[in-house]
Fold this protein.
Amino acid sequence: MPRRSERCYDTGLSDTLKPQHGSFLHDTDHKSLGPVIVSRSDHNISRANISQSALKVLYRLKDAGYQAFIVGGGVRDLLLERRPKDFDIATNADPDQIQDVFRNSRLIGRRFRLAHVRFGREIVEVATFRASGAEPDDERSHSDSGRILRDNVYGTIDEDVWRRDFTINALYYNIADFSIWDYVGGVEDVRSRTLRLIGDPVTRYHEDPVRMLRAARFSAKLDFTLAPDTAAPIKELGGLLKDVPPARLFDELLKLFHGGHAARSFDVLRHYDLLRYLFRDTQAALETPEGEKIAAFIRRGLENTDARIREDKPVTPTFLYAVFLWFPIKALADKLERDGWQSGQAMLEASQRIVAGQQTAFPRRFSSPMKELLAMQWRFTQRQGPRAARMLQHKRFRAAYDFLLLRATAGEVDQETVAWWTDIQNLPPEEQGKMTGGKPRSGRRRRGGRRRGAQSEITDVVS
């Protein structure tokens, strides 16, 4: 295979590749072309920035006679001088051969058969090169809409590259000589900060609609601009996300909003009209006359999440969903109150209805605390008596108080109320009792000894 230096991007080859992106990546004839090989002297990736566990996997595969490459986001991030969160490895060894090389590995996956090689708490993922799977009797399966259901057709690196989603994720770092193999102009796209799909965008989005969410996520995370042909079909094809399993949408949602770029992700999703497929009720609220106020509230909440991640503080889907669903839940609760429901119960009922209608999965371990947190909001207006005293002792008080502060930034809560609940937390119990005029309920166990479920726990909030 001819060997080319990265310098070819500066001496004419880049000018040959860049104008061809519209056709070069969409035709099938291009698959016979070999890679541009970027030599070690012409790129900035150093083994010092690769985890020792990943290097062990690469060298053991190489020593066993197999090809071994770091592929995907790890190569991209190293070129951008970012710290990769993990290193994925691609090889021509099949899963059984990988397991023979690594006793500390196990095979996982149905759609994609992968090996996980474990080094203490670190896991290195190893995948076999995949082929196009064009034969009718192969192991690749599609749904009627074109979505890939199963994908276990093994091939060569020359075939594997065309199965990857974006050019910047289709770069291969070769442990044999420390070069980068680039079939699709990915190095140039990294340099120009361009996010470009490999292949025909309409076909690729039909194969896996989550690619639209991934495009939004990478754009937000890396501050890359979507190539025009990559961006063009998104608004029209967004409805394909309705067929994606809720659990997969939930996983992608966490990557969008718990990766340190939540506020930017929110803006990108709105730009491409994808938010409605994650939070339908929220999108409807954003289209009301109060839409800009709601958007500002959500953005402030997401900026808070981004700040916590930068400070290495914990974040939870409970708060994330509370931020996105507060206004739809509040609107429904107000309607229920007008229909005669008591305030606390109206908030609880509205929370249950809105949560039940979510397109994404929302596990109960997160949704139940969120319902509590939101149902507690109306109680902040009650500053006298035993209920106010009990409020301070509630296990969700701090989370509910933080949400109160967020609501105050949107003008929903007066500053006097915020100051009162802020000040009382810093007082000794006796002084707290004087301010509320009541005492916390004693910790005596209820008669009967029955284990209390989530519903009775939430009822305490609104009683």
